[in-house]
Each structure stands twice: as C-alpha cells, then as structure tokens.
Amino acid sequence: MSIVAGVDIGSTTAKCVVLGEGSRILGKSLSVVGVDIVKDAERALEAAIQDAHLSRSDVSFVTGTGYGRYKIYFGQLVVTEISCHARGASFLFPGTRIVVDIGGQDTKAIRINEKGEVVDFAMNDKCAAGTGRF
C-alpha cells in the first residue's frame, strides 16, 4: 500500500494528513505554530502518523505547503497553498468552484474548475488579513 503525507505549515497552525490507497484519510493532525517551524513541521507529521497507527518508515512521500513550506526539509515536493486548497476542496467537495481561505497572514479567494485546478485567484496584501493575529 502506498502511503503519502501532506504537511501545511501556516503562519498560525500546522496541519498534516496521511493518505492511503484511494486517497483514504488514515490520520491527521492540527497544532499551533511556534517559533521553530522545522520542529513544528516534524511534530505535525509525527502526530498524523501516530493518529494513523503507522511509523515514519511507512510513509513513502511527503508534500509540503503553506507559509513555511520551504522549511519542510523532509518533503519530496513543495506546492503552493493555493494549488493545495483547490485540489483539496475539489476532492472533499466535488463541484466546488470557489475557495476562500482566511489565514493568519492573508486572505485568498480562489476560483477552480471541475478538475480542481486553479482558474484565477485574488489575495490581499495586508498582513494578518484582519484575523486579529499580529
């Protein structure tokens, strides 16, 4: 069985999901980001692997995304959060055409097609996006 993971290191939270055959969700994690983004990414992955009742050696591929995506040194691929939002929304909610992400640092509105591909997007240019986190 091929097992993969995606780690999203945002400006306020770290998220991870572990997927198995057929993109079935096996485990997940959500935690607050501190000052050490590298350790936060490692902890997010380990927590999701534990949630899936697996070990690190079971995971064959890791993708990183989010504000801290370049700090995910253990990943094999880096993808923008805009592309990940589009694909994830389309996977979880087929037929989705608009995704709005109100994050800790910015807000994004993303228009997607029936395949979950980004057609267009807009993003604010003000830090904190009015979310109250500075």
Alpha-carbon distance between the two ends: 43 Å
Structural class: alpha/beta
- Tell me the major beta sheet: 5 strands, mixed
Could you please say which CATH topology of the largest domain applies here? Nucleotidyltransferase, domain 5
Task: Assign the CATH architecture of the largest domain.
Answer: 2-Layer Sandwich
**Number of folding domains?**
2
Output the strand order for the largest sheet: 3-2-1-4-5
The overall pLDDT, averaged over residues, is: 92
- Can you tell me the overall shape? globular
Describe the structure concisely for a colleague.
With 134 residues, the chain is an alpha/beta fold. It folds into 2 domains: 4-78, ATPase, nucleotide binding domain (Nucleotidyltransferase, domain 5, 2-Layer Sandwich); 81-123. It has helices at residues 37-51, 81-92; strands at 4-9, 13-19, 25-32, 61-65, 77-78, 98-102, 107-112, 118-123.
